[in-house]
Amino acid sequence: MPRILIIEDEAAIRRVLVKILSEENSSYQVEEAEDGLIGLEKIKNEDFDLVLCDIKMPKMDGVEVLEAVKKIKPEIPMVMISGHGDLDTAVNTMRLGAFDYISKPPDLNRLLNTVRIALNSKELVVENKRLKKKVSKNFEMIGESDEISIIKDMIDKVAPTDARVLITGPNGTGKELVAHWLHQKSERSNGPLIEVNCAAIPSELIESELFGHVKGAFTSAVKDRAGKFEAANGGTIFLDEIGDMSLSAQAKVLRALQESRIQRVGSDKDIKVDVRVIAATNKDLKHEIEENRFREDLYHRLAVILIKVPSLNDRRGDIPLLIEYFSDKISGEQGTIKKSFSDQAIKMLQEYDWTGNIRELRNVVERLIILGEKEVSEKDVKLFASK
């Protein structure tokens, strides 16, 4: 049932608006507020699908209400009610985010059309927001084990915040998937997700890669170049294998986290950045700190939230689901008929020692699909999945 709030200091106008809306659609739940302060308090504490708000009111005028609502609940469409002398102001409220405005006394057809369109727009906004929260199928996290359920619950709690996250776990367990979930379920999902593999970049180039450089900063710096932090502005940067980052680069990352500012290599000019940092490593960073290979202050900046991704050996109950998922995905990619796995074949795969974790399991499933029989059997596993 759509809930509509009317904020209007003139009781007669409120009664007219309530009567029009109630008679037009009995499913509308219409509430009233006699001034802007009361109306804003209702909006803060209750859920409304549409607000009709007068512009000229005592205590708090409609423009102030509009600006406040756009900060706390921007998805609610605001239709402004304007007197003859308020038309210029009403037009200006459109620039501030108002959905539309109607003049006093309200024209019946204009009012009802505006309300219907505004309510439809609210549904579209909410649906778009919901779709953006869904994670791309390329980054699905498959599993129903307690270990995976805990991680999914933690992601749902942490993703909407800007808290920094450190993801730990062995190679091949899916740390990158966790990072994608955190980004795609966050309020930054419209912004970029920039991934940096710190282990794949030579130590002498990591600072330039992260923070950019100015022309002439070093021999091959033939022009100014922005770094990954600038590219991630307004979004998320994922620092994978951060345990392999040099100490000098760690110091600059620490400054970026502390001050939300960076400097390009060869420059003393500060560049402000708005970036959420997610990091991952397969190393024991506390041991690295003891060995003076990782900064303790950076660790505490990164590890606001710790997510430990379990090895596949610690979640063997998910292996049948993963086999089904990979079989379906690989068959689709290769344009072949999907193969099933016998119960005995699945049982054998569950008993393997998966040192390469999910990445290794995927490779084995692909090999069995290519080389195995129509139904992958225990014999196929013995022949083609042996270590």
UniProtKB/TrEMBL annotation:
InterPro entries: AAA+_ATPase, AAA_lid_NorR, CheY-like_superfamily, P-loop_NTPase, Sig_transdc_resp-reg_receiver, Sigma_54_int, Sigma_54_int_dom_ATP-bd_2
Assigned keywords, A-Z: ATP-binding, Nucleotide-binding, Phosphoprotein, Transcription, Transcription regulation, Two-component regulatory system
Molecular functions per Gene Ontology: ATP binding
Domain Response regulatory: 3-119
Residues bearing the modification 4-aspartylphosphate: 54
Cited Pfam families: AAA_lid_14, Response_reg, Sigma54_activat
Source domain of life: Bacteria
Record protein name field: Fis family transcriptional regulator
Source organism of this protein record: Bizionia arctica
